[in-house]
Amino acid sequence: MEHLLGNGWEIKPAGGATGEAYQAKYEDQTLFLKRNSSPFLAVLSAEGIVPKLLWTKRLGNGDVITAQKWLNGRELKATEMNREEVGKLLQRIHTSTELKAMLQRLGKQPLTPASIADELERKALELQPVPPVILESLAYIKEEMAAISSNHEVVCHCDVNHNNWLMSDRGELFLIDWDGAMIADPALDLGMLLYWYIDKDHWESWLATYGVALTQDLQRRMHWYVVAQTIISIFWHHERKQFAEKEYWCQFLKKIQS
Fold first, then answer.
1. Per annotation, catalytic residue among 28, 118, 159, 179
2. Given 5, 173, 235, 242, which is the most exposed site by the fewest CB atoms within 10 A?
3. What is the mean pLDDT of residues 62-74?
4. Where are the transmembrane segments (predicted)?
């Protein structure tokens, strides 16, 4: 990485699940570097959804390094997810034809309720014994699957955790970490955000900021996707022997299913 930038640059890991992100500093310049980012990053930058992409370089071994402007800022707190800017940015993402066209060019197939249900059933076979709350929830997933349909598929981030929302010290809001993006029902993102962060009494007003009404159909779809995503989280933590986190999501699943 050092030979890519030249002498004098200080490079250190910048965190992240993949371990492929770095901060590079030289005098008054600071860059955010990442190895093998998706070409999707260029469109996200052009749309102002992530910090500005400055350059892309291919190494001799085939790896691609991207450099983005390093922004001084902070992650949003969980209590700030009700901010108007969050709903407006998510709405802009979900209505972007450029983002959807780019994911389609990259070969992304829409994530359907049927494909999610099939994956959950396959994963359940690896989790023995299966906790009763998961068995009950899997039955719900299968029973409701046919009714969970939307002819409006958009680019979904699929991990709208507050840690992925970056507020710069100039008041600019960005949504980062797009490695898991899919084309899917917007109810997938909306359900996760509302169930995790917004009091149910405020769902209607939050969705009004986003630009839709809280209909029975939307509630049904959001609930289905949140149940499915919660089961996925339980499986994910089980595979990594993170049993405290697994139990947390089991309790969360009991709560939303009751």
1. 159
2. 242
3. 89
4. none
